[in-house]
Structure formats: C-alpha cells, structure tokens
Amino acid sequence: METSLHQQLKAHYAGDDGEVEVRLGRYRIDVVRGDVLIEVQHAGLASIRDKIRKLCDEHRVLVVKPIVARRRIIKLDRVDGEVVSQRWSPKRGAPGDLFDELVHFTRAFPHPRLTLETPLVEVEEVRCPGHGRRRRWRRGDHVVVDQRLASVGETLRFAKAADLWQLVPGKLPKTFDTAELAEAMSAHRWMAQRAAYALREMGAVKQVGKRRGAWLYERVGRPRRKAA
User: What is the full DSSP assignment across 62-123?
Assistant: First the structure.
C-alpha cells in the first residue's frame, strides 16, 4: 500500500504544473513535469534500476531517493484510533546512508540523462498494535501502518560521479583505505566499504594498490598541486 509519505513527495515534486501517475508505454511514472520523468523511490533503488536504465534511453529522468533524517513515532491504540504515545526515534539518517543503496544502482548511475536527488526529510511514523500471522502478538508489539511527511530539509543533487563526494564531508589523503574513508564519513567501516565499491564502480575513484592487505583508493580527476 502506498504511504502518505510517497503521495506527499509526489505532490511536492509535481508542483502546480506537473502530472502525477502517468502511463508511459509499459511503465507508470510517478510525476511528469515538462520533459522530465520523476520517480520517487522510498524503497530500495535496486527495484527500479532496470526501469530507470530503459527510460534514460529516450528521456531525462530524475530519481528522488529520500533519506529519513528524523522520525517521530506515533503509537495508536488501534488502526485509526487514539494516540497513545509520541516520541522521537533515537535513530537518525545521514546523507552517507545513500551509499547503502547506490551499491545496487551502479549500472544506472551516472548517465547523461539521469539526475539523482536526495532530500533529507522528517517524518511521522504511525504504528498500532499488530497481530502477525507468523508470530504471537506481545504487549508493546506494534507495526507501522503509515508514514507522513513532516518537512523537507536539505536536498542533495547528483548529476555526475564527482557529485557523490558531497556524501564524504571530511578530508582524505591523496590515497586512502576504507578506514580513512569511514573516518571522513563519520561512519562505520562496513559503510565505507560499500561507499568505496559504489565510488569505484561509478568512476569516482580508482584502486591504486594495497597497504597491509587493505585496498588503497585515489580520486579520479583529483587536481594536482602546483609545484612551488
């Protein structure tokens, strides 16, 4: 079932002059605005990779992949019932989380007709008691019944591989391993490993050797320092 969040983001990107849910050949497009096809994907990018590749053959495409920066959890006593409690989730999303999806999108991005946009959003997540078929319901056991858009914050835009460096705010040496990349991203090593894979496959870095068994990377097109 489509969430309120998906509907609201489609309306946000449609604006006053866009069309929503447009049939184009065998595909349904979330938003068509001018000559740009817009796909809003809150789920994984892997599921739309082949669709996007096909659309890019003839059209300009914008893929919107939101990251939930903050989440307010609202618990109801039942579906469409009364609010029992509200609290902020301690878990926060960060721009670098996008790499967790980009590892499945390396065959689609970059492309001359494709732009990827990542808005950092604040959402309200509505939960109610769940009676799962595969497990016994426990007191305090809730399921998500909807997500609603509360606000749209900073939005990052990626048109080429070099734009992905927006996701790495810290400084890196000329050659670096995934431990140094993790520090520059303020992320776990496993996320940096995924980032390195995506950056390499998308043409933003190249492998230049090894150090104590760890791969070393270097930015592609990194400007050279002028001689003194």
Answer: EEE--EEEEEEEEEESSTT--EEEEEE-S----GGGGHHHHTT-TTTSS-TTEEEEEEEEEE
